[in-house]
Amino acid sequence: IKINYIDHTGSTFEIGASEGETLMSAATNNLIPGIDGDCGGNCACGTCHVIIDENWTSRLDSQNSEEISLLQMTPDFNERSRLACQIVITKELHGIVVNLPEHQM
Ligand code: FES
User: Fold this and answer.
1) What ipTM does the predicted assembly reach?
2) Which end of the chain has fewer surrounding CB within 10 Å, N or C?
């Protein structure tokens, strides 16, 4: 399953991920810069903040309140912000485009 991470300078990192991984674990396994995942995916640290490309937001489940409150504390928060650890990769997400926030680099 192809995932595209794009940093704030426009550099694209295309990786192959497996179904059942999260956008956070796929990023850390492939050493994508800016995704630390300090809490191990427990929706507790906010270091896996990503901004989903507008063409893909409608294909994801919506955030729960815990995720939203953590995201609101991150500097680049906007309406397409998500915690990458809360998004499980499925076949439907093949080709997804995810932006990396500038202040997380
Ligand atoms: Fe900590 Fe996602 S890895 S909130």
Assistant:
1) 0.99
2) C
Model confidence, pTM: 0.95
Q: What is the dihedral of CA 53, 55, 60, 62, to 10 degrees?
A: 80
Choosing from 67, 71, 85, 88 the residue with most ligand 1 atoms within 8 A of its CB, the one to mutate for a pocket test is: 85
pLDDT tens by residue, the chain, 105 residues: 999 999 999 999 999 999 999 999 999 999 999 999 999 999 999 999 999 999 999 999 988 999 999 999 999 999 999 999 999 999 999 999 999 999 886
Is the domain defined by 2-104 classed in CATH 3.20.20.70?
no
Q: Which of 28, 29, 32, 47 to mutate to test the pocket of ligand 1 (most atoms within 8 A of CB)?
A: 47
